[in-house]
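User: For a benchmark we're assembling, each entry needs the component sequences followed by a predicted structure for the full assembly. Here are entry 17's components. Please fill in the structure.
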Amino acid sequence: MAPTAGLGFKPIHFEEALAAPAAGLWFEVHPENYMIEGGPRLAMLEALRSARPLSLHGVGLSLAGAQTPDRAHLLRLKRLNDRFEPFLLSEHLAWSRSEDRYFPDLLPFPRTTEALLRIGRNIDTTQTLLGRQILIENPSLYVALYGHEWSETDFLRQLVKRTGCRLLIDVNNIVVSANNLGFDPYSYVDALPFDAIGEIHLAGHRADPGQGDSLLIDSHDAPVSEGVWALYDYLIALAGPIPTLIERDGNLPEFAELMRERDRADAMLRTPRRMAACA
Amino acid sequence: MRCCARRGEWLPVPDLATFQLAFASAIPRRTRRGAFERQPGFAVYRNTAATALIDSLRGAYPVTAEIIGDDGFDALALVFARVHPPASPVLLDYGAGFASFLAAQPWTSELPYLAGVAELERLATEAHLAADAPALAIGDFAGLGMNGLMALRLPLHPAARFTWLRNPAMTIWLAHRAPGGFEELAPDWRAEGGLITRPVDAVAACLIAAPAHRLLSGLRLGESVGQAARAVADIYPETDFPDLFAFLVNRGAFAKPPSLERI
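Assistant: Structure for entry 17:
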């Protein structure tokens, strides 16, 4: 089936999400928000899943950490994966656990060969336990770390090669990181392994209130910016159509407004492109 | 050890575990002096982590936040989050222990019901997230006869929670939750109980008196219905037991025990 566009699901939009007639519409949720014993929340996801394809986008595995993934958390993820049979399951190239403490955030690390080997092992462990391939998402970065031995795109390419995972490319994260760290977002896209991309994320960002445009925050609380749409257009011209998600977490507008962004991405996926057709 | 050149200096590149410890310990500190903190972008990590925990506590304790006021609540939530960082990435369940944290704050002696309200909000969260199970209905034990019913040991429903409070925290919490709000609240200053259940798909809460609390406590400890009924009759002789029992069954307080499946 041709790749289509989906929408991050918010419980307050449940009725409209269930009734939406759009062809090819799918939804994505954070599995951590459904790692519970039972009750109305899980029942709602069950109803959504019976109407539409579902993607699980994890935030809690801390794959880019030195510790092996928390087994209890992996088992909770496996339970949801087995029950809801998502067509995509993704996680971040970031860490959130240090010793026994969790940070509700996606934290950076120096891309060394040592980190590459550890993260590769963590992805292996995850894919083995889940019995499926996962997608790894490029992060939003806010500080320049020293000690990198790999570029981010080469690091992602290596993870794909070593573990057989695929990639979730967040176009907004590229724009945010490129702005904050001073690199060219188009060159970053040129260097991606296109065949390995299994999903694309589009989201909104905003300027830091204190620092202004020199520091962009991946806030997910605004419409997708025109700069992100342009880079998305460039990416799918090179890589071909790929399932694309509109993410919105804060400052939630009406469901119809989110659907307009989703429909814009969906229409772009259906636009015939010479480069993709020749590939 | 591998090194890298930076401004002509040779600085060690830490291994991933060491890097994480250094980065993690810089997040709660408020200085701008460390290696990471010098960059303005580091504040984004600090704010994101703090905001996520404050938002999650605010979502879990909305009435407590209403009573304290948003600014005060956020400041308290930040202190709680520093002392009790999450031990799991599942934030829906974050915030256990917030009631006892509040009770330990000296200023809450002026708001003696506050910790009770927070305890009730935590019980409501637990009820919301608890496992599904068929609730016991009146018809389920119709065929047992009185002796059969009295011999029965009844499991509480997985979503049922109850507590006994030394002040009218339940009345105050219920008033804040009421859809229309409340004009003025002047509760009788006495102890009371709260029962929280999930009878159909939503969490429901009601006041309970001492006999109901004694009955639920006894059944939770494994007493038979008969044992609990005799205890209630001894301590609270004016109680209409069949009426009380039917009330609790209808609230969804009990799960249907496996022994009743065969009847």
